[in-house]
Design brief:
Blueprint: E1 6-10, E2 13-18, H1 22-31, E3 34-37, E4 42-47, H2 51-58, E5 71-77, E6 83-93, E7 96-101, H3 106-115, E8 122-125, E9 130-136, H4 140-145, E10 160-165, E11 168-173, E12 182-188, H5 192-205, E13 209-211, H6 213-222
Helix pairs in contact: 1-6
C-alpha cells in the first residue's frame, strides 16, 4: 500500500493487483525486470524412504530422473487421471522433495496428499513458514547477481540451489511464470519483507518495477503458461 498498490483478497491473502498499472508492469518484465511477491503459493515437503515412489505415483513426470537440486513442471492427478493442480517439483535430496502448488488449491492439494500418504514417508506443509519472491525479466540475472555470491550463470533453468541473497538464507530457483528468464527465491516468511526491500531497490535501480497479480496473469497468458 505504501508503494501505491491496489490490494484485493485472493485465496485468503491480501494481494496487490497492480502498482503503477498492469500494462507498465507487463512491459517492465518483458524489457527490463519486475519483482513479484508470490508468497501465497503453497510449499509442501515430502521426505522419507518412500518419498520418491510417492511422488512418482501422485504426479505425471518422471521424478526418478531428477538429480539433487533439479526441478520439473508436473501435474497432480486424481485417481482417474484428471487434473487436480499443476505444480513444480524439486528434488532437495535423495529422499526429500519440495512441491510448489497454487495458492487457491493448497488446502485441497494437501488434503489429497494426506489421503494418499503411504508408510515410510512424511508430509510437511511449509506454506505458512515460507516466503517466495519472483524476479523476472531479461535483467533478472544481473540484478540478482549483485545480491548473491551464487554463480547464476551456472544455474540452469529448473534447478535450485541454497544461497544467501542480500544476507538472507534462501533457496534460489531459475523458474518463473512469465515466459522470461528469471528466478524464484524461497526464504523464511519472517525474512521476506527485508529481502523484498533489498530486491526492490536493486530492481528499481535497473529500471524495473514491483509487479502485481494482473501483470503476472497477462505475462503467463502471453507465454502460453497454464493456470489449473
Amino acid at each position: 500500500r505504501a508503494l501505491g498498490a491496489r490490494v484485493v483478497e485472493f485465496a485468503g491473502w491480501e494481494m496487490p493487483v497492480s502498482y503503477r498499472g498492469a500494462l507498465d508492469e507487463h512491459r517492465a518484465v518483458r524489457t527490463r525486470c519486475g519483482l513479484f511477491d508470490v508468497s501465497h503459493m503453497g510449499e509442501v515437503e515430502v521426505r522419507g524412504a518412500a518419498a520418491l515412489a510417492y511422488c512418482e505415483r501422485l504426479t505425471v513426470n518422471a521424478v526418478e530422473r531428477l538429480r539433487e537440486g533439479g526441478g520439473q513442471y508436473s501435474i497432480l492427478c486424481d485417481d482417474r487421471g484428471g487434473v487436480i493442480d499443476d505444480l513444480i517439483l524439486y528434488r532437495l535430496g535423495v529422499d526429500r522433495f519440495l512441491l510448489v502448488v497454487n495458492a487457491g488449491s493448497t488446502a485441497s492439494d494437501v488434503a489429497w496428499m494426506e489421503e494418499h500418504r503411504v508408510p515410510g514417508m512424511e508430509l510437511v506443509d511449509r506454506s505458512a513458514e515460507t516466503g517466495l519472491l519472483a524476479l523476472q525479466g531479461p535483467l533478472a540475472a544481473p540484478v540478482l547477481q549483485g545480491l548473491t555470491a551464487l554463480d547464476l550463470g551456472g544455474l540452469r533453468s529448473f534447478t535450485l540451489r541454497s544461497a544467501e541473497v542480500a544476507g538472507e538464507a534462501a533457496r534460489v530457483a531459475r523458474t518463473g511464470y512469465t515466459g522470461e528468464d528469471g528466478f524464484e527465491v524461497f526464504v523464511a516468511s519472517e525474512r521476506a519483507p527485508a529481502l523484498w526491500d533489498a530486491l526492490r531497490d536493486a530492481v528499481e535501480r535497473a529500471g524495473g518495477e514491483p509487479c502485481g497479480l494482473a501483470a503476472r496473469d497477462t505475462l503467463r497468458l502471453e507465454a502460453g503458461l497454464p493456470l489449473c
